[in-house]
Design a protein that fits this description.
Layout lengths: L10 H13 L34 H7 L6 H23 L5 H11 L10 H9 L4 H13 L9 H13 L3 H13 L5 H13 L3 H12 L8 H13 L3 H13 L6 H13 L3 H13 L6 H14 L2 H18 L1 H12 L6 H9 L9 H13 L3 H13 L7 H13 L3 H14 L5 H13 L3 H13 L6 H13 L3 H13 L12
Amino acid sequence: MKRAWKISVSAHTELLCLQRSSRNPRILRPHLLGHARSPAHGFSREICDMAAPSSAGVREIMEMFIDKFARVENRAVLGEGVLARVLELRDELVQLNGRDEIVRVLDEKADPLLLSVDALAFLELLKQLDSWPHRALEVLFWKRKLQERGIPMTSEEYVKGIRVAGRMKDVDLAFELFMEATSKRLKTTSTYNALMGAYMYNGLAGKCQKLFLELKGDADCSPSIVTYNILISVFGRLMLIDHMEATFREVELLNLAPNVGTYNNLIAGYLTAWMWDNMERTFQTMKASPVKPSTSTYLLMLRGYAHSGNLEKMEETYELVKDHVNENDVALIRAMICAYCRSSTMDRVRKIEMLLGLIPENGYRPWLNVLLIKVYAQEDWLDKMESSINEAFEQRTSVNAAGVMRAIVGSYFRCNALDKLASFVKRAECAGWRICRSLFHCKMVMYGSQQRLVEMESVLDEMESFNFNRTKKTFVIMYYAYLSSGKKNKAEQIKGLMCKHGYGVPHDAVSS
């Protein structure tokens, strides 16, 4: 473990982290480090990345790490009239293009609306522009420029600016705003938290931890529960579970009250590391505490249940947040489909079909299509299987998993769809799909069962073109095909060839 990841939460905790990380191999277990599963399983840790938030949840995650400024009270203090003017200004700003137009409108309509000493209206405008971060930054730049006219910025405005810069992945600007607030003696725990959150959001764990140590050494500020929430999130994303747990113990030692963000980050960390029992234990602890689960909590648990294959709890949790998931979280819907695909529940296809109806037409994912092909093949839904296969060909998706190919062949065989199998094999060859010996053996068995012996023999040439040698199964298939067709001489010739190659007599062979 690199020393850069140690955290001096306290002398006791730092020593504990170091000891546990050096002796506990679970932190670096290979299966927790995102090794991809084979295509036969239909998904990989990269595909089912649980640590990365969906685009719909980005703002909510960032909100988790920013101290609240009593937003409800803020709106009440503003009054309906001022709030209406802020919303009107927002609607106008989002229609503009270019900095000059934005500055012109702000100069004309924002004074004195946004220039009150308490900055509540200005903060509300920035909040209303959360969905348009570029506009929010331009508004912030406009306000910074006014300092030249003696109109100062507040600490809360710097916090909001740092947060927006972090969301825009402009870490340099976030740091610049932090230093500017520091130089004006406006540095607070909230400004520290905002910059730590920006570092966390942009994957700069080292800088995040360094800033935490600076905060602990600042005589004028001290870490809050939001600070520790950020650290828990950082360690959880890195799967440094012992460090994450040590940070939470420090929260308890300091008598800081955990909030929804604290528990959600712990759950997310265990989820990322696939530590399902710890995830469930944390969830139950949260439910027993004064802090009650939020929608985000249930979404995390739903994802965890889906990836762990706990269908019963997955379905129970889905019922609680169904409306939100159906409307906002296609990634979670795909995760649930994955769970059903990997299960053996009787009505899995019906449930899969229901969830597929919630995915938009432009939501094609190659890995999900391959999963569906395999499921339809296993269930002998031939039309659905071929529809998914055709979609894969159209999307130029290449299937390289032998298990998927065998499932397809098995379905064609059980449905006695010989001509469809022959057509599929030709298309698969052209599309670069994995060609297995079982494809050719299956064709031979089906040709033999229909006494289409000439076509059965032509399959041998196809096998040679792919450098597949004739095996014991090849000869057994031919032997019984000739025998069932009354061509005993041909059958005896095959028996002789089998003996020549040391395979023994056909009666000892296994069926293909």
